[in-house]
Amino acid sequence: MKRLAIIPARSGSKRIPNKNIRNFCGKPMITHGLAAARASGLFATVHVSTESESIRDVAAEFGFPPDFSRPDELADDHTPIMPVLRYVAQEYARRGQHFDEIWLLMACAPLIDAKDLNSAAALFQQAGGQLPLLAVSEYPAPIEWALSRGENGVLTPVQAGMFVVRSQDIEKHYFDAGSFAAFPAARVLESQGAGSDSGFIGYVMPKGTAIDIDDEQDWQLAEAIYRVKVARAAALSKDTP
Asked: How many CA atoms lie within 13 A of 33 on its CB side?
């Protein structure tokens, strides 16, 4: 298998300025995902897709200089991910480089682990390598218990009466972990528009590793979890003879 990993990392984050390269537990945010990609040994090429000189410099300093820049028209607030992946794959094809699998690694997913990437790659192949794969995480509570909150603060059940059903009697549901996805190359190259959200294999991430970092509170929570993860790994390493 020849795999291409693409890390989309445009500039212009408004809620957390310079989010992709801001210091996260001692290193620029994006380098955590780059380190996991490197440690996995899966990828023939890792490409940071960005229009930002600052992000390019950080990636290059970490050993992953982008081979080309992202066009400005694919770096606005409204461009979906799939056109970005398609552009990168087409540009490499134009340069004579072709891949069997195209992976999306999110720039702000510092809890990605090389072990998860390797396990997901094995699952992808076990399923035949023809269906895309998405990292997902289990909802912490049944979605059937969801409530909406009006402007007056009054709560309304989304599904009336479900509060009496035990959680163990309700089917589990999952959400996009915001970590990574894997595609057969043809799925990306032949995609139209934003692509499709159907037909994915789900790779279930450990609970607590799926954090959508949108604001400062999310950032602080992710850092706290990361520090615990590092401390546990260090303790295990110390105890291993």
From this structure: 25
